[in-house]
Design goal:
It contains 14 helices and eight strands. The protein is of the alpha/beta class. The protein folds into two domains: 163 residues, Rossmann fold; 188 residues, Dehydroquinate synthase-like - alpha domain (Dehydroquinate synthase-like, alpha domain), CATH 1.20.1090. The strands form two sheets. The protein has a six-stranded parallel β-sheet, with helices on both faces. The longest helix has 23 residues.
Length: 365
């Protein structure tokens, strides 16, 4: 069969240093007059100040934690209804953007957030428009229809068109205060998105182009952004890498490394990027084939082995955990099983069953 694919990307993207200052004009352009702003706790003073000066922000919600809880999304949805808001602005890391997206998706139709989370209520396609403003360079959540949400210890990655933002404002200036460790974690998450979008079984040519450029940008800029957070050129290139990484996996979805990241985060507390990076070089070697060689060459590398080594070196540089021995007492059977049954594992180009994953993790002992 010949080449066949469907490509769509509905998010209007405003990119550039200082773009966040144009928020008022951008909201006006989008026709949004009464927005609820959802932000990271440390941003509350800045956003509250903006709300005081602009009638376009009618409420601010900032009770966001690293693994965003469903109760937060439910509270934001209630706020949207109560203030009769016509838009939501999410300003922060992935947790904040995912909370804003989930809340906006359930606000119109009403109903319990838990019923949507469990799947007994279907997300309506009609949702409150969301403007995403990422303050880290990694998750790509600003341009995807993914929301990672937790209810107690149950964590789900929900993929639904109702979560698609209307617009994204990507302002590299907002990432300058991100500490080095988070810079490394989130940067490697962006790299994982690009690589997994490329090698996902659902890969397609337009997403592939963005994957190549995202890989190249991360490898050329992540170390510089990690060493000096005020390096605006490195920060700008990492914001672009994260955006392109998001676009690279938005349609193909991620694969093995992300599948393994969920038990690593849930059971051993690894932050998302660190959890993805934990197995990323292993999967580069497992998934090594002629196609991956092509990506490496296009991204300026000698081949897959160099790619795996560069990932390992970045992890070491950033002080990330790379061995199971660093995670405390590990239940290898459960880790291999939970990774194997994660739906994203089906996208891995090399089929990985529980036994194969156990062997991979044993090599990371
Ligand atoms: Fe990710």
């Amino acid at each position: 069969m010949g080449l066949e694919f469907i490509y769509t990307q509905p998010v209007k993207i405003f990119f550039g240093a200082g773009k966040f200052e144009d928020l008022g004009a951008i909201l006006k352009e989008l026709g949004l007059r009464r927005c609820v702003a959802v932000c990271d706790p440390f941003l509350r003073p800045v956003i509250s100040d903006m709300a005081e000066r602009s009638s376009a922000i009618v409420a601010v919600y900032s009770d966001i934690r690293p693994n965003p809880q469903l109760s937060g999304a439910a509270a934001v949805a209630a706020l949207i209804r109560e203030r009769e808001a016509d838009g939501v602005i999410g300003v922060g890391g992935g947790s904040t953007l995912d909370t804003a997206k989930f809340a906006a998706a359930i606000a119109c139709k009403g109903g319990e957030a838990l019923d949507y989370f469990r799947g007994s209520l279907v997300f309506p396609l009609d949702h409150v428009p969301v403007v995403t403003v990422p303050t880290t360079a990694g998750t790509g959540s600003e341009v995807t229809q993914v929301s990672v949400m937790s209810c107690g210890s149950e964590k789900k990655t929900i993929n639904h068109p109702a979560f698609m933002p209307k617009a994204a404002i990507v302002d590299p200036l907002l990432t300058r205060s991100v500490p080095p460790r988070t810079t490394m974690n989130t940067g490697l998450d962006a790299l994982a998105h690009a690589l997994e979008g490329w090698w996902s079984r659902n890969h397609q040519p337009i997403s592939d182009l963005m994957a190549v450029e995202a890989v190249r940008l991360v490898l050329e800029n992540l170390e510089a952004a990690w060493r000096d957070g005020s390096d605006l050129e490195a920060r700008t290139n990492m914001s672009l890498a994260a955006l392109l990484g998001g676009l690279a996996f938005a349609l193909p979805k991620t694969a093995g490394s992300h599948a393994c990241s969920y038990p690593l985060s849930e059971d051993y507390g690894l932050p998302h990027g660190e959890a993805c990076a934990f197995t990323l070089d292993s999967f580069v070697r497992i998934n090594a084939d002629a196609r991956l060689e092509t990506l490496c060459k296009r991204a300026g590398l000698s081949g897959t082995e160099e790619l795996a080594e560069r990932i390992a070196a970045l992890k070491q540089l950033g002080g990330l955990r790379t061995r199971l021995a660093e995670l405390g007492e590990v239940d290898l059977d459960k880790l291999a099983h939970d990774s194997a049954v994660h739906p994203l594992m089906k996208n891995n180009p090399v089929p990985m069953d529980e036994a194969a994953l156990r062997r991979m993790f044993e090599r990371l002992a």
